[in-house]
Amino acid sequence: MTLPDPTPYDADRAAFSREALARLALSSSARGTAGGAMGLVATRNDVDTGLGGRAGQAAGLVEAARGVLSRAVVYERERGATWEQIAHYLEIEPAEAEARYEPALARWREAFDVPYRLDATGRKRVPQLPTAAYDPAYAVRQLDLWAYLYVVRGDRRAVSGGLPGYVPADDEDTCPSPHGPDDLGGRVRADSVRPLLEQLSHYVTRDPYAVEDIDWDALTAALATTDDTNDRDPAAWYTHAFDGFLGTVRVRLARSARADAVSAVVTGADSADLRLRVDTLLNVFAAPPA
């Protein structure tokens, strides 16, 4: 069967070395396991958990950790580690290390030669790479934000900053420069401003009618006089505030030099959940690279 034409994801991966992609797959696997571990910290729902249930969760973590270890071995091989060096840290013999992890390494390498397989219907392509390696641009953004929220406060590129050989494009930088340590920003498509505000309103207020007070024609006219290169002057930006039960979230918008793009900065999204949602919106509505 003939597979469909290459997708945009295939082109995105060209900016990443195999070593960097293997590291992203490891980071993503570690994040998932860490999220599972968080569920065992709180005790509030213990009374609703059947006897033995928490042991089952812990067993799931052990299995997930095995997956993290497998990803780590693949990464180490991609960055040049020998089986002897890996075996030293695993405290096993090199031959045992190779026998145990060579199948995972073979699957990883084969996925680059055959990145897709068709499903049983012959119509849907199924990626063979781990999700983070298949769509690294999205993974980088999500992992950077997650690490900023939960691991290294103050480092906005805790993941992407150390990826071997990876240099973020200018359009991936927060635009405009953040005005506060917790601002989220980016360039979005000009035609996505309305759906962006509508969805953000839903997240913040839980009120489906919260955007009815926005005069969309006035907003369009106001944006025409804005300029995202003047990020120090509040008057150069259009600002709208959403009042929610957790506080006020403000969206600042300004016309970009590109006719098809608008710069957006969101302030006041303090909770980790809301920040991840806002970041996802900015990614979904992101303007394509120039």
Characterization of the model:
The protein has 290 residues and is of the alpha+beta class. It has two domains: 126 residues, no CATH class; 116 residues, no CATH class. It contains ten helices and six strands; from the N terminus they run αααααββααβααβββα. The strands form two sheets. Strands 3-6-5-4 form a four-stranded antiparallel beta sheet. Strands 1-2 form a two-stranded antiparallel ribbon. Helix 2 packs across helix 7, helix 3 packs across helix 5 and helix 4 packs across helix 5. The longest helix has 26 residues. The two termini are 35 Å apart.
Write the topology of this structure:
Layout: H1 8-12, H2 18-38, H3 53-78, H4 83-90, H5 94-113, E1 116-118, E2 125-127, H6 131-134, H7 136-150, E3 184-189, H8 193-205, H9 216-223, E4 238-244, E5 247-255, E6 261-267, H10 272-284
Antiparallel strand pairs: 1-2, 3-6, 4-5, 5-6
